[in-house]
Amino acid sequence: MTENSTVSRRQILSAHQTGQKIRRIAFEIYEQNLKEKSIIIAGIAGEGFAFAKRLTAELTQISPLDVRLIELRFDKNVHQQSAILFDRELNVENQVVIIADDVLNTGRTLAFALEPFLKVPMKKVQVAVIVDRSHHKFPIHADYVGYSLSTTLTEHVEVVLSRAEEEGVYLK
User: Fold this and answer.
1) In what residue span(s) does the Phosphoribosyltransferase domain sit (predicted)?
2) CB-CB neighbours of 89 under 10 Å
3) Are 71 and 87 in contact (CB under 8 A)?
4) Is the pLDDT assigned to residue 150 strictly greater than 50?
5) 27 vs 135 pLDDT, higher one
6) Which end of the chain, N or C, is more open, meaning fewer C-beta atoms within 10 Å of its C-beta?
7) Does residue 1 fall inside a structural domain?
């Protein structure tokens, strides 16, 4: 990490607080899916997938659910829909899928992430995020939110789960 990357950022949630939010989301997911035998956690590549891994671990600890984890990979920076790839083959038909990402800002990334699940019959598709910034431009809302944060459009929220020494939520 460079010196400049820490100068203008402020920690909003510590590693411990972030972990508590993830655990609470796991309990909420379990409560909303008590009658299910299995669910799929689909994490968006990057910190979204790191979040999905943590959710999977928590759900495995607290519930009898068969939790399957997949990674959704696509280019979030293109203006048109890019191809979405799963990291492995998995039958998602008639399943409950939780799409997990670190931050919900405009909803664009999550709207794109829905694309492969709209092509097959689904039991239920839900969204889980650690931080909801509420600057929605797409009709996407999160079913499970760790922390709602009011920000300006120029501010940036960074969730760090993949580097233990920096874990937490930051505002830049």
Assistant:
1) 10-148
2) 6
3) yes
4) yes
5) 27
6) N
7) no
Q: Which amino acid is at 46?
A: G
Is the CA virtual torsion 108, 144, 169, 60 positive or negative? negative
Instruction: Return the CATH number at 79.
Output: 3.40.50.2020
Q: What is the pLDDT of residues 3-21, one digit of tens each?
A: 444 458 899 999 999 999 9
User: What's the pLDDT tens digit per position in 96-132?
Assistant: 999 999 999 888 888 888 888 888 888 999 999 999 9
Phi, psi of 79 (to 5 degrees): -80, -25
Q: Is 31 contained in some domain?
A: yes
Contact between 157 and 106 (Cβ < 8 Å): no
DSSP string of 85-130, one letter each residue: EESS----TT-EEEEEEEEESSSHHHHHHHGGGGGS--SEEEEEEE
**What's the number of domains the chain is made of?**
1
pLDDT above 90 as % of the chain? 58
CA distance to 62, 79, 116, 125, 166, per residue, from 120 (Å): 29, 25, 8, 11, 39
User: Does a structural domain hold residue 4?
Assistant: no
Task: Output the six-digit token pair for 90.
Answer: 């998995």
